[in-house]
Write a structure and sequence with these properties.
Order of helices and strands: HHHHHHHHHHHH
Number of strands: 0
Shape: globular
Oligomer: single chain
Distance between the termini: 24 Å
Structural class: mainly alpha
Helix content: over 70%
Radius of gyration: 20 Å
Largest sheet: none
Number of helices: 12
């Protein structure tokens, strides 16, 4: 356990030194604060709109940015160390490859978690200012759910980046592959699944389960599952899908972390140093 935490802490300090936390937090904070502060602009108003509408808007932002940030954060986690010659030193230390990989993953996960929490906390301050005192607890619970769901989604794409990095022959190849993965999971599959939900209105009970094959969709469903039916009624394509049990969705997102990370460890174990 001690080597694992040493590696994780070292990776976390590297993330702080390279300004990853600051950069991610500022990007998320500025965009999230803009959505929270000017959420009523679409209806011709100005200022904070109702909480469910704001949460849906923030979840769309998170769904686009956090997977991309996670993939770019760790695409060179293994192949970059290999090109730098660091992996050659691994054989001289009394630690297993699995311990080293898991330690690096934990460090990156802490970086992503801290930056995401800070970024959305800024939006939370804006939302709390515009929220009546009686609804403040619901606001805090909604934001906590959004942050926790975003972290699970981000960590799943982080594990995916490790799997890609473990098999890539160069940093350029890994960078191209993570961009393809982001485009596929966040844009192509998302639009394709929503199009199927709209077109297949009858006999398409299997489609909600198909959405679980995409961690970004699981994140969307988890956020919608926390809202009451009056606010998901405006999304007819997702009717009946947003009622999926949060426990099931959390379990699927955890599986999206464990499975790619396990495959990454297996691929890394076979990689020649």
């Amino acid at each position: 356990m001690q080597p694992l935490m040493i590696i994780a802490c070292k990776e976390f300090r590297d993330g702080l030194r390279h300004r990853w936390v600051l950069g991610i937090a500022v990007l998320l904070g500025v965009l999230a604060m803009g959505i929270a502060a000017f959420g009523a602009a679409a209806s011709g108003g100005l200022g904070f709109t109702e909480l469910p509408t704001t949460l849906i808007s923030l979840s769309t932002l998170a769904m686009l940015l956090i997977p991309l940030i996670a993939l770019l954060l760790a695409y060179d986690a293994i192949v970059g160390e290999d090109e730098g010659g660091t992996l050659l030193l691994l054989a001289t230390y009394p630690i297993s490859r699995h311990t080293w990989l898991l330690g690096k993953y934990l460090g990156h996960a802490w970086v992503l978690g801290l930056a995401t929490t800070i970024g959305f906390a800024v939006a939370g301050i804006v939302i709390a200012i515009g929220t009546p005192q009686a609804a403040l607890m619901d606001t805090l619970l909604g934001l906590a759910t959004l942050i926790a769901s975003s972290l699970l989604m981000g960590w799943s794409f982080l594990a995916m980046a490790y799997w890609i990095s473990a098999g890539a022959s160069s940093k350029q190849t890994a960078a191209a592959q993570v961009l393809v993965a982001w485009f596929l999971f966040v844009l192509v599959l998302d639009l394709a699944l929503l199009a199927l939900l709209v077109m297949v209105r009858q006999g398409g009970s299997w489609l909600p389960w198909l959405m679980l094959a995409n961690p970004a969709e699981c994140f969307r469903l988890l956020v919608l599952a926390t809202l009451d039916a009056t606010h998901t009624a405006d999304l007819p394509a997702l009717e009946g899908v947003a009622t999926r049990s949060p426990a099931v969705l959390v379990s699927v997102l955890i599986a999206w972390i464990v499975v790619p990370l396990s495959l990454a460890a297996r691929r890394f174990a076979k990689r020649s140093l």
